[in-house]
Amino acid sequence: MPNSSAATSADGSSSAERLFLYEIIGLRQTGEATSYPIRRSGSVFVTVSYGCMGEFMRRVSRLGARIVSIRPASPLTKGNPPALASASPADPVPAATAVEETVKPSGKKGKEKSADVPVNIYRPNKPFLGKCISTEELVREGGEGTVRHLTFDISGGELRYLEGQSIGIIPAGTDEKGKPHKLRLYSIASTRHGDHLDDKTVSLCVRRLEYKHPETGERVFGVCSTYLCALQPGDEVQITGPVGKEMLLPQDPEATVVMMATGTGIAPFRAFLWRMFKEKNPDYQFKGLAWLFFGVAYTPNILYHQELEALREQFPDQLRVTYAISREQKNPKGGKMYIQDRIAEHADELWGLVQKPNTHTYICGLKGMEGGIDEGMSGAAGKFGVNWSEYQKTLKKEERWHVETY
Ligand SMILES: Cc1cc2nc3c(=O)[nH]c(=O)nc-3n(C[C@H](O)[C@H](O)[C@H](O)COP(=O)(O)OP(=O)(O)OC[C@H]3O[C@@H](n4cnc5c(N)ncnc54)[C@H](O)[C@@H]3O)c2cc1C
Known about the structure:
By secondary structure, the protein is α+β, with helices and mostly antiparallel strands. It has three domains: about 20-105, no CATH class; about 130-245, Translation factors (Elongation Factor Tu (Ef-tu), domain 3); about 255-405, Rossmann fold (3-Layer(aba) Sandwich). Helices cover about 20% and strands about 25% of the residues. The strands form four sheets. Strands 9-8-13-6-7-10 form a six-stranded antiparallel β-sheet. Strands 3-1-2-5-4 form a five-stranded antiparallel β-sheet, with helices on one face. The protein has a five-stranded parallel β-sheet with strand order 16-15-14-17-18, with helices on both faces. Helix 5 (about 340-345) runs parallel beside helix 7 (about 370-385). The protein binds flavin-adenine dinucleotide. The site of flavin-adenine dinucleotide has 20 residues, from strand 9, strand 10 and helix 2. Flavin-adenine dinucleotide binds next to strand 9, strand 10 and helix 2.
């Protein structure tokens, strides 16, 4: 299981040493907190180490101030500006340093504020050179094909990303015309903190494309996926991005998050589930319900199977996992069990959930999987006299129906 128990970073620092940037309003220039420079906007930015967060938050609350946002701060690696003022030793707020004022972005309700979403930090004409630090086969014996979990070191650059985004990979070498290869996009399978929780890595879940040429019958391998699946630790790789705002998690920790994946479509949902259940993020403590529908061909093709089962066992009240194993299970009509059959099986319940204003549904994986899902939802909505395609438009407008298929 790739990095499943990582709680310590590659350089040996623990999560307790991670830094977070707090934006606070309502601190008065008098009284106990006078060592902070209060900005014209009324916001104060304070960097706090992970181990001091509890005490810091109690302190802010006692002062009658309000925390507006908390985000990871990594002063040396992420190019944060130097400290403007330090908390005095006498100041009772622990391990805190006022550092910066940023422009507060406006954003759509419930989603990451769009100005906080990093995009195109690295472009194809000047990609970031990452390094492969691990590669692991995810398909177990008896399964079909090759899918690898790859982790790249991205320290030493500006690359950062959010759960649900993708990065571009430019394969080494040239195409048949002697030109550099074009980039391919891959969904990020790790959280913004990376598998080592040190903000220094990004992980992907890549299936090696392999098919029979329709005319010649020759076995063909995809350029980029084959390149990625053959990478060895130490190899350099050209990375662009990040891109994508379609698959971002809602900020609401009480949300219901329904995820429907086929194959490598699990990648963004692995990132979601890690953020929800594995990381103890003070700025996001998930209290809602997560329901994953996952379609694969065979049991050994259930990617991250052990991780998923461990989470399901640990959070039985908050996480549901429903598999559709097409070559092993049968649908009620005796045919292969596809994800849409599972959707149809649970359609009434899903219909109940999607009507809740804080339910977000995400679909990721093979192109064409939406058709079956729509069919299942249509059936359920139809029972209540609702036209699904009209209702789905409303969900999309409310940014509660998210699709990324390829
Ligand atoms: C937003 C996004 C996210 C993605 N995330 C992931 C991910 O997480 N994991 C992942 O593995 N992939 C992901 N992909 C797909 C990925 O970008 C590549 O398309 C994939 O890896 C294939 O690239 P390649 O260079 O290996 O294949 P290429 O060399 O580019 O070959 C692909 C071409 O082969 C042909 N082809 C493919 N299959 C057949 C067939 N059966 N019969 C005949 N011709 C065929 C088609 O012309 C196709 O365009 C994602 C794509 C997008 C757009």
